[in-house]
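User: Could you write out the 3D structure of this protein bound to ascorbic acid? I've included everything you need below.
Assistant: Certainly. Input first, then the structure.
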Amino acid sequence: SKTRHFKWEVEYMYWSPDCVEGVVLGINGQFPGPTIRARAGDIVNVELKNKLTTEGVVIHWHGIRQQGTPWADGTASISQCVINPGETFVYRFKVERAGTYFYHGHYGMQRSAGLYGSLIVDVAKGEKEPFHYDGEFDILLSDWWHESVHEQELGLSSKPFRWIGEPQTLLMNGRGQYNCSLAAHYSNSSSSQCMFRGNEQCAPQILRVIPNKIYRLRVTSSTSLASLNLQISNHKMVLVEADGNYLQPFAVDDMDIYSGESYSVLFTTDQNPSNNYWVSVSVRGRKPNTTQALTMLNYHNTTSASKPPPSPPPVAPLWNNYTHSKLFTKKVLALMGNPNPPPTTHHRRIILLNTQNYIDGYTKWAINNISLVLPATPYLGSIKYNLNNAFDHKTPPANFPSNYDVMKQAQNPNSTYGSGVYMLSFNTTVDIILQNANALAVNTSEIHPWHLHGHDFWVLGYGEGKFSNENDEKSFNLKNPPYRNTAVVFPFGWTALRFVANNPGVWAFHCHIEPHLHMGMGVVFAEGVRRLGKIPNEVLTCGLTGKMFLNNKND
Ligand SMILES: O=C1O[C@H]([C@@H](O)CO)C(O)=C1O
């Protein structure tokens, strides 16, 4: 194994992700940030310099478990102090497992501002994937707004509440088109045909292929809000990997991907090579007000990339066709031989009710009536050094009142802000039931993709309505549940997860929709923190740990 060194500088830049100039958070002058490519077993060493003039920054390595390096998880207020303007911080961690991952900002809403990039881990030298392919493409999906993230943050925390609305544009590898369309030829839309020379920041990356080969497409979603559906016209896709774990292969015509998820799909270039084909990405789960993102699959030896495909882009499944989404999601199952969940029945079960609430007239999300507010001192430090005033010491509830009606508008008059932690006994098995419910508006319940830091979990099942301990656990899949770091909870439904608390550290578990996390939709788990050796001081130079270091010096 090797150490892979990267030297990065984060700064704001003018950029035109969707052909409209705006401001993005870039790394080394690039948007999206540079791709990290390593092999399983390597050490990744990123020396990150914050060149922002008035904001801190951190970077989270999404899907990397950080065994033994919980201070490198890159979560502000949880695993570290933010890196101040002008300062440099070194992230150093092992990438244990091959797979498709990404990295992104995890402070305020910096991910939405464009702070993200791909992280791809190849199998170790001499190892083989359980499938064959001849070529590879990597697509990082995101959504883009013309309003600045600072203004969005302000709106979300204002009274009256100002929602960010639907994105202006969907981006593929940071490229989309707002004021023109690649498919204007076919529609009677008012948008004009895009005329690209190819060097524009918003020009689509064309997937150039040759006939009769198998390609691996790695797809990751870093969206702020949108759930997505991807298809390649005329080409079937076979799913083989999710969040760094191999799947029981299955073929589809279109696939869903939620924020925080990654997949690898294989497709075979077995179609007429004298045509081009659409690659399209559309919004689902929320009433779309954003046109589909488009690029092309081009058999480049036989067809010019500028030849329009013979028919208009494929029509996506209807945004609220949840039956379609559930069918897809339930096909995602682990490949035989993947680790199986411990079958224990005597373990901790935490049921997390997802509701939208008013607190003092502010619109928030709350979990079991508590809307997460992060403390000034990172939990990793305050737990390690027993700084009892650093956060709420009341354990957050492991359930919600049994008479709560999840089908009715939220009635949570007692919702509060909180910063409590679920303390997990080291090495225990934990079951989480994500319980969705009606939001503030009548007959409304939204999709939430939940992401766990520091672990993968088994997705034991999905169900409708309120979870019932007696009946629903009988339906758990203990044979081949997918092992992942992100799972969706469908509107008015529940999702059951299981993980083993075997990674010393403090770990966020939260809705990966950026404005929802900003509105409090997350919880914090901690396990085995006292087993950790020395936590590097530079991780904890703020808040009460920062003061503690000062006092120790002066003594
Ligand atoms: O958190 C959210 O707030 C809005 C809406 O519920 C209130 O404007 C919305 O669609 C969300 O997902």
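The mean pLDDT is 96.
User: Perfect, thank you.
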